[in-house]
Design brief:
Low-confidence stretches: 370-399
Shape: globular
Strand content: 5-15%
Number of helices: 13
Structural class: alpha/beta
CATH topology of the largest domain: Rossmann fold
Strand order of the largest sheet: 3-2-1-4-5-6-7
Helix content: 25-40%
Number of strands: 13
Oligomer: single chain
Largest sheet: 7 strands, parallel
Number of domains: 2
């Protein structure tokens, strides 16, 4: 089986990391992968799947669809079996490519498109276009129950939607860690944009120092989406007088090495997520999590069992939860052990790739897909892989 994955490529964040891991793990389940990058920038350089063939076909604008012609030739030359897209841009290209080649098409839903962009009007338009285009897909893959609900609420039937949680390749044994002691090391990891709540974390850090007299530092790992936003954040650090407590580390290839330096991971996102990869990595490397209670996060973190959830945009709640976890080493140890067990059971890269491969078989009608947890549509009342029930269906998925 040979599958074409269409990738944007200007960033190397959560969705791109899923694509990278799939390219590395799918061959173990009989799937050959070819990547096509439509906005080649960071992904081609930072990907771990350097042995996977990658073709760069840059789109000059959002609506530059001239790439469909060379893609059609590529499909025929390499005798590809299936198309897999991951973003609104790649979905548009895949829909046209499907029309040209008649290949089956799977679209991956990594989040809530209408909240991803900074400009609300533009985000709403992109979300609307994506929903109209992907109605032509043979199957939608959602990374979480709440991501599935994003499309289910638009009238997509559950038999056309499969939930396959994200996975990561973590250690087989829980890394040993010393109990945290002041000054505490708090961490943030992400591609920094306003929706990620970095300001909330900074305000919580200021409260830890001024109101709770707690000694803590904050390590901010990851690039900023724009230089303008970076300057906004740095000005806030100055206003809060946190220059000595905050370190901006930028992009780091080895996220695990950064997590090893943290006593606690903060995830203060203020808008819905798909299924944040950094939460899975923190669970795998034994770093307890305090996160916002938003869609996507609630699919990963079991409150008070594998992490702590707080209301979004409430710096004081974030500060208090962090202080509570760090002040009780026994509780801190319980959280990280339970989180590690949950990650190994539900959110591994191997499990993710196996379920995607089974889905491909089902879409193609190949033998061996029967009985797979992901190779057939999820019935309305059956449990999701993450252990949560599928919400009731709404409307009908057009053919």
């Amino acid at each position: 089986m040979h599958v074409l994955h269409l990738v944007n490529g200007e960033h190397y964040a959560g969705a791109e990391r899923v694509q990278d891991l799939l390219a590395q793990w799918l061959p173990r389940f009989g799937v050959e992968v070819t990547l096509v990058c439509l906005k080649p920038d960071k992904f081609p350089r930072r990907r771990g799947c350097q042995q996977t063939p990658l073709v760069e076909l840059p789109m000059r604008t959002r609506w530059d669809l001239r790439v469909v012609r060379p893609l059609t030739q590529l499909v025929r030359q390499r005798k590809l079996d299936l198309l897999h897209s991951h973003t609104p841009r790649t979905a548009l290209v895949a829909a046209l490519l499907k029309r040209k080649t008649a290949l089956p098409w799977v679209h991956h839903v990594h989040g809530h498109t209408a909240t991803e962009a900074r400009r609300r009007g533009w985000a709403a338009l992109v979300g609307w276009i994506e929903r109209q285009v992907v109605r032509r897909a043979d199957r939608l893959v959602a990374v979480s129950q709440t991501a599935a609900g994003y499309f289910r609420n638009q009238g997509f039937a559950p038999e056309s939607l499969v939930v396959i949680p994200n996975g990561i390749a973590g250690p087989e044994q829980l890394p040993e860690r010393d109990a945290p002691r002041p000054p505490w090391r708090l961490g943030l990891v992400g591609l920094w944009r306003p929706r990620k709540g970095l300001e909330v974390a900074l305000e919580a850090l200021a409260l830890l120092r001024t109101r709770f007299s707690a000694a803590a530092a904050l390590h901010v790992v990851g690039p900023f989406e724009t230089s303008d936003y970076e300057q906004e954040v740095r000005r806030l650090v100055e206003r809060l007088e946190l220059q000595e407590q905050v370190r901006f580390l930028g992009y780091q290839q080895d996220v695990a090495a950064q997590l090893e330096q943290m006593d606690l991971l903060l995830f203060p996102s203020i808008l819905p997520e798909g299924m944040p990869m950094v939460l899975l990595e923190a669970m795998a490397w034994g770093v307890p999590v305090v996160a916002s209670e938003v869609p996507g996060v609630v699919d990963v973190v079991v409150p008070e069992e594998t992490g702590v959830l707080v209301p979004p945009q409430q710096p004081e709640a974030l500060a208090r939860a962090a202080l509570e976890a760090l002040n009780h080493p026994g509780r801190w140890e319980e959280l990280r052990r339970a989180a590690f067990t949950r990650q190994r059971r539900l959110f591994s890269a191997e499990k993710m790739a196996q379920e995607v491969a089974s889905l491909y078989q089902a879409v193609l009608g190949w033998p061996g897909a029967e009985g797979s947890s992901s190779g057939v549509a999820i019935p309305e009342e059956s449990p999701l892989p993450c252990g949560l029930p599928v919400p009731p269906s709404v409307g009908h998925f057009p053919s």
